UniProtKB/TrEMBL annotation:
Residues 57-287 form the Radical SAM core domain. [4Fe-4S] cluster binds at residues 71, 75, 78. Its EC number is 2.5.1.120. NCBIfam families: CofH family radical SAM protein, mena_SCO4494. Keywords: 4Fe-4S, Iron, Iron-sulfur, Menaquinone biosynthesis, Metal-binding, S-adenosyl-L-methionine, Transferase. The keyword Iron applies. This is Aminodeoxyfutalosine synthase. S-adenosyl-L-methionine binds at residues 77, 183.
Length: 386
């Protein structure tokens, strides 16, 4: 394609976005051509971002809990997992879990993000107990826990249906599900990375079932390893199709691959330009997902901040105790203060708004930071006001 053909093709896409028409697989693949200027894709993504979320930059105050790193699987991109007998392997006790809940409460956290390994010797009841323990002791904290990979494992352990498992966890206190484990759906890639764990059909079916029983979920894509543009766009379209059916995804989070300490450590980590291009294209392709998150832990603070002008409207949270990406060489800090995350958003020209896990505005007592409540949904009421 010569330069004027390239310009004409981009104009077609711009016209579609401006008139709110859906982009196709071919459109998405075209936008990954490095000859298409990133700044122009970014400007287009920003148009959609501001149409959907105004000038707001969302963040939350949250903490992570990875109760065990012992895992039956050996995903090639994973630096977190451990074998049972490896000295690196650990399992949290109830006391340690309670201590984490207390620390989160004292820090004013509204959310605990809970994911981990699939421990050979821990029955489903242990994973359920952990949710119940936290919920009973810290009922205000929203528990966003267990990816579809874990739910698939629980299904295998209990020999019950996905619906039964999800309803049982919901009864124990589960509030919503994170979007991990999606990696890349296309079998050409998935079979190379993690052929044994929950397959694409299972991942999508578990999220669909979660939406059907009233659990909101997030969705992700791990990019920058062995996949090509075609696989990324195919992945986004599969998510978009499910969202058309259920409307249950609240945010999409593109996850940049970190190679250190993984079986793919010969691969170079994606560049900042690739990160921004992927964020922007995600915003353009996922016309039915309200939020796009620039997960600062993976992207780095600087890229995440710029991403607020490339389609992203959310920086994730202050985060405590993140292990999974730090084990894979992430050099970001393990925690951001509330002031720091608000400054990052303000400096990017956006209005910082604290949200809870299900995107309601958080209202805090000015004199007691740990005293908070959830207000109205930020979608789309708040956007009109900023
Ligand atoms: S990504 Fe998750 S399922 Fe795969 S090896 Fe790591 S901990 Fe286990």
């Amino acid at each position: 394609m010569n330069n004027s053909e390239m310009r004409a093709r981009f104009r077609e896409i711009r016209d579609k976005v401006e008139s709110e028409q859906r982009l196709t697989l071919d459109d998405g693949i075209f936008l990954y051509d490095p000859a298409v200027p990133l700044a122009e894709i970014g400007a287009l993504a920003n148009l959609v971002r501001e149409r959907k979320n105004g000038n707001v930059g969302y963040y939350n105050i949250n903490t992570h809990l990875n109760p065990t790193n012992v895992c039956v699987y050996r995903c090639k991109f994973c630096a977190f997992r451990s074998d049972l007998r490896n000295p690196k392997g650990y399992v949290f006790s109830d006391d340690q879990i309670i201590a984490r809940g207390q620390e989160a409460t004292d820090a004013g956290c509204t959310e605990m993000h809970i994911v981990g390994g699939l421990h050979h010797q821990k029955p489903y009841e242990w994973y359920r107990h952990l949710i119940e323990l936290l919920h009973e002791n810290f009922p205000k904290i929203h528990l966003k826990g267990w990816t579809a990979v874990e739910i698939n494992w629980f299904e295998f352990q209990t020999k019950k249906s996905v619906k039964w498992v999800l309803e049982d966890l919901k009864a124990a206190g589960l509030g919503s599900m994170p979007g991990g484990g999606a990696e890349i759906f296309h079998p050409e890639v998935r079979d190379q990375l993690c052929e044994h764990k929950a397959n694409t059909h299972a991942w999508l079916d578990i999220h669909k079932t979660a939406h059907e029983i009233g659990l909101r979920t997030n969705c992700t894509m791990l990019y920058g390893h062995v996949e090509k543009a075609y696989h990324r766009i195919d992945h986004l379209i599969r998510l978009r199709d499910l969202q058309d059916e259920t409307g249950g995804f609240q945010v999409f989070i593109p996850l940049a691959f970190h190679p250190e300490n993984t079986k793919l450590d010969h691969i170079k980590k994606p560049s900042g330009l690739m990160d921004l291009r992927t964020l922007a294209i995600s915003r353009l392709m996922l016309d039915n997902v309200q939020h796009i998150k620039a997960y600062w832990i993976m992207l780095g603070i600087e890229t995440a901040q710029i991403a607020l002008a490339y389609g992203a409207d959310d920086l994730d949270g202050t985060v405590r105790h993140e292990l999974i990406y730090h084990d894979a060489g992430a050099t970001t800090p393990e925690h951001l203060t509330v002031d720091k995350i608000k400054d990052l958003i303000t400096e990017a020209g956006r209005v910082p708004v604290e949200r809870d896990t299900v995107y309601r505005r958080v209202i805090r007592d000015e004199n007691d930071y740990t005293n908070w409540s959830s207000g109205e949904s930020v979608d789309p009421v708040l956007v009109a006001k900023v």
